[in-house]
Amino acid sequence: MIRRRLRGSAVAAAFALVLSAGSATACERLQDWAGARKIAGKTWTVWWLSEPAAIPVGAHFSVRFRLCGPPARQVRLGGWMPDHRHGMNYRPGVALAGRRGVAEGLLFHMPGRWQLILEIAGAAGREKLTAEAVLE
Ligand SMILES: [Cu+2]
User: Fold this and answer.
1) Digit-coded pLDDT (tens) for 9-50
2) Where along the chain do its domains lie?
3) CATH code of domain 31-135
């Protein structure tokens, strides 16, 4: 919020960058995370990357993620097909270490439009972040 109001003044912007350096408001993609995608929420922002990079149909994949924002106590990942109103047949396991984590054992079992859903919970509240993927 503060950064947004200050935008437009180079001096103020530089000041805001100093303020945010090292804090959770700085949420840049890690250099080794080519292809990572960002979902910006109100409380948390997440960078995520699937392995393999192209989510397969009918085969397990994993998602590495990095959170920006206040500490998270729990992160759950799931999949949802909004057009068919169903989710996955598997419940992935999520390992969370600080603001980084990995979810293993996701499986999108049919082609079409899927939502990858991250549910984050912490002392700051709860938030649901959604990314879309179309599988062919
Ligand atoms: Cu479906």
Assistant:
1) 444 444 444 444 444 456 887 777 888 999 999 999 999 999
2) 1-29, 31-135
3) 2.60.40.1930
